[in-house]
What we know:
The structure is a homodimer.
Chain A: H1 4-20, E1 25-28, H2 31-38, E2 50-54, E3 61-65, H3 66-75, E4 83-86, H4 98-108, E5 115-118, H5 127-136, E6 141-144, H6 148-153, H7 158-181, H8 188-201, E7 240-249, E8 252-261, H9 267-286, H10 293-305, E9 316-319, E10 328-333, E11 347-350, E12 353-355, E13 360-362, E14 365-369, E15 374-376, E16 385-386
Parallel strand pairs in A: 1-5, 3-4, 5-6, 8-16
Antiparallel strand pairs in A: 1-2, 2-3, 7-8, 9-10, 9-11, 11-14, 12-13, 14-15
Amino acid sequence: MFPIMEYKERIKKTKEKMALEGIDVLLITNPSNMNYLSGYDAWSFYVHQMLVVTLKEEQPFWIGRKQDANSAKATTWLDQKNIYSYTDDYVHSITKHPMDVIARVLDEKGLNNCVMGVEKENYYFTAKAYEQLQKGIPNVVFKDSTLLVNYVRMIKSDLEIEYMKRAGTIVEKAMKTAIEEINVGVRENEVVAQIYHSQIWGTEKYGGDYPAIVPLLPSGERTSSPHITWSDQTYKLGDYVIIELAGCYQRYHAPLARTLAIGEPSQEATDLAAVVNEGICETLDFIKPGVTCEEIEEVWRTTIAQHGFIKDSRIGYSMGLSYPPDWGEHTASLRAGDKTILRPNMTFHLIPGIWYDDFGIEISESFVVTEKGIETFAKFPRDLYVK
Amino acid sequence: MFPIMEYKERIKKTKEKMALEGIDVLLITNPSNMNYLSGYDAWSFYVHQMLVVTLKEEQPFWIGRKQDANSAKATTWLDQKNIYSYTDDYVHSITKHPMDVIARVLDEKGLNNCVMGVEKENYYFTAKAYEQLQKGIPNVVFKDSTLLVNYVRMIKSDLEIEYMKRAGTIVEKAMKTAIEEINVGVRENEVVAQIYHSQIWGTEKYGGDYPAIVPLLPSGERTSSPHITWSDQTYKLGDYVIIELAGCYQRYHAPLARTLAIGEPSQEATDLAAVVNEGICETLDFIKPGVTCEEIEEVWRTTIAQHGFIKDSRIGYSMGLSYPPDWGEHTASLRAGDKTILRPNMTFHLIPGIWYDDFGIEISESFVVTEKGIETFAKFPRDLYVK
């Protein structure tokens, strides 16, 4: 939980954007946005729930499943009267839909004839949910407000940065564990078991929260399939392993990627790692308030081009507070065409990589933009690790 | 991976249902359904992807992000020519949507003037995705086919049951760990760190996969908030803890819940645990092929009513193969009104509970319906555990 004043400030900024875009009522179904504005935190996003912000009322209100209303009381700063719920017969029913109850609540509160923002491109706002909502309050004009709150979230408060630094300390431990545990004959799942232990145990002072993505550590030819998850096969001599994982503290993330060679790496791999490292150094050196996302990607691209690598791709994204299935914030991307101007307390995951046909090198840093440059959340050497 | 014949059998059953419902083309975006029909398995469901089944073609085809096409090649039984992809500039872009590419692929394949089933109530099929798809192939008649494949999945093959038994062995270990580790002065996250280690390490023979829901172990007054996740606070003497977690083997789940008292439990708690246990015994004894879901719930309800407890609720659901955020299959529920008839090789999580104001008892079993009754996946005494 953050101080109530911080939540009120976030609500204020959200309302300012709503007013600017002509939105009277904002229905927030993205769990990260719900958490950001109310503090709500529970693994209940697998059923329909939302937070409703209106221009007129000071507090937002929460609507969700009855048994989760207790979680709302326990984790949010909202008054009890602003917590509404639906009964369990609406859960995974083929005849009843939670949006019918939600539409009724909105209707009874007089929110049935206005401009309403909905997060159309959010995992937890299904096509069906939108249909039912439209049926329930037919006089409402709906607007797509998918990233409205996400953009408010982009510039973090100092306390949010502090949480991400704690996540950074946790990810250092988890990455150290991964590098220690990976070896010939060890099963991939055994390494992940140890990584999870590090991620959740956290530090003496700060316990770890669950990251929004599971640890990924594809090896051998699977390094070209970055989102494939672990198996119970063993690592082999000659494998390269790309390790991508995050530390998480109270839903705030610090992701990190490193590459490891099991056995002596080839000259080609060592050279490639040096190129990636040079690219990262140049890129991080360039970043400061005022530069744009596309300028950052250009520095990376021109640096590696000097070594003959032509690669035009997204090399990072804004991130921070998140829930599964992704720790990305879905706002700014470090890629050509993204003209977002960097400001202090924005936070990114810079994750470039270069792949040959049979292996690749991926090394990343999570960082906060400071007054003069950047600071990485984890302090972890960017070597090509060798076992 | 299952034998190809098993995938073909699943496709056959899916097509039979499609034909019956007048659906020419089925767009599958639920990652569990994609896995079930193709074998596809990667943490890539945070971007748009789908599997397309047509009545005319033998194999389905996969469409997703370019870098995930390698995962499709590595994990599915599909020919390479049936794997299509979109480039990275479509990922989390505010100007381009992956469904535009997907609509184009469908259009080019002549699937632009037919009846198309879509999973409208699926986490990974957003309101926006549906809108873009409708724009891209405007002559298509869309039908809601949310649970079409889920219902095919309800009756498991013997090999699927074997996978769930392996998950059952893993959950026994994870629950044993939880009960051993919870104690006065131990932080909640430290217990979860050990649980994760057990879940993922698995057994000597079978490595653990990530369960679709994180371990839940609310204590004290938080036992009335079943979906609240762990903190880094320590357990206290007198706390009751409800532990709900799953073993997972290659995406197949065996969930289990037990209740633990830290310190001597009150007479009230011991009595309540006895009632819950009696209810579970009577309910499990009753289950066999031919009975209905609502009859099962009625047995539970009348058994606890003999002890003065009136509770009318959902006490379980069909489950098995799944991805986050839920391990439930969203088909049959053990509750009043659900007339689903049980068949051999259906699999359920029976999770009843009774709550007082200040604490509750929750004890569960995952089971498979056999020819004559049921068999639980985990063999784990249903005691009220005391530390």
